[in-house]
Specification:
Elements (H helix, E strand, L loop, with lengths): L6 H18 L22 E9 L2 E4 L2 E12 L16 E7 L5 E6 L2 H5 L38
Parallel strand pairs: 3-5
Antiparallel strand pairs: 1-2, 1-4, 2-3, 4-5
């Protein structure tokens, strides 16, 4: 049996291996500073607040009524999934993320070490463009008479 053992085949094989190796590498996900203090990595844009399950999917965030999105995930301090019914009535410090509809989609219950880290989005939303978190602009309390509502084109 005649095998091709020329030196250029070994070089070609080595070149192919070096070309395909970086393709498997992925860029690291940007995170905020809880990991520097021994905590978990949280995605950019997560917010911090006081979380309490009233009656799933109804929750309270910082005393304001909110809703969990369908399929929302709540993770404990040990990175285990927690069912909302197990947290009913408990007031917990959490990091959370909203979905595009404005409902809470991901919740992370914080450890004491993670709670000490300051979040850059704790007081205001990231880039301040989310209408469901911004405090600017008029809010309808549901009691505005119909004839005083804004009309199309105004």
């Amino acid at each position: 049996m005649n095998r091709c053992n020329t030196p250029w085949t070994a070089l070609l094989l080595a070149a192919l291996c070096t070309v395909t190796a970086p393709a498997g590498a992925q860029e690291p996900v940007q995170t905020q500073n809880e990991a520097a203090l021994g905590g978990r990595n949280f995605p950019i844009g997560t917010l911090r607040g006081r979380f309490m399950v009233v009656n799933s999917p109804e929750i309270q965030l910082d005393g304001q009524p909110e809703r969990l999105s369908p399929g929302a995930r709540i993770r404990s301090a040990q990175q285990m999934l927690v069912m909302p019914a197990n947290l009913t009535g408990q007031n917990l410090l959490v990091n959370y993320k909203r979905d595009p509809a404005g409902m809470v989609s991901e919740v992370w219950i914080l450890t004491p070490e993670e709670a000490q880290a300051k979040r850059e989005t704790a007081d205001r939303p990231l880039l301040n463009f989310w209408p469901f978190v911004a405090n600017s602009g008029p809010r309808d309390d549901g009691k505005t008479p119909f004839d005083q509502l804004p009309r199309y084109g105004q």
